[in-house]
């Protein structure tokens, strides 16, 4: 078994990014080419749900090297607490 098992975290990628890094991050986490994940999102979009899933993933996944997600940043600003992305 891999010694890094359990240490991977799902984060948006900075290196494999076309838009926001969601597909690159999922690809790195799962261990597949990000283009396959992009193709899956394209098929899901044609079926009627890919864009919604992509936006949810963008909101929930923190960026590589970052501490908080976009959604957490929005919630903290709404509460009046200081938050930086």
Automatic annotation (TrEMBL):
Q: Which domain of life is it from?
A: Bacteria
Topological category with respect to the lipid bilayer: Single-pass membrane protein
Per UniProt, subcellular location reads as: Cell membrane
Q: Which Pfam families match?
A: PspC (PF04024)
Record-level GO cellular component terms? plasma membrane
- Keyword annotations of the record: Cell membrane, Membrane, Transmembrane, Transmembrane helix
Q: What is this protein called?
A: PspC domain-containing protein
What are the TM regions of this chain, as residue ranges? Answer: 36-60
Residue ranges constituting the Phage shock protein PspC N-terminal domain according to the UniProt record: 8-64
């Amino acid at each position: 078994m891999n010694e890094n098992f359990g240490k991977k975290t799902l984060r948006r990628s900075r290196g494999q990014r076309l838009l926001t890094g969601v597909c690159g991050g999922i690809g790195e986490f799962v261990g597949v080419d990000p283009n396959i994940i992009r193709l899956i999102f394209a098929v899901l979009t044609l079926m009627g749900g890919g864009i919604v899933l992509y936006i949810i993933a963008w909101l929930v996944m923190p960026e590589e090297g970052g501490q908080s997600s976009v959604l957490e940043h929005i919630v903290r600003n709404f509460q009046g607490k200081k938050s930086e992305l």
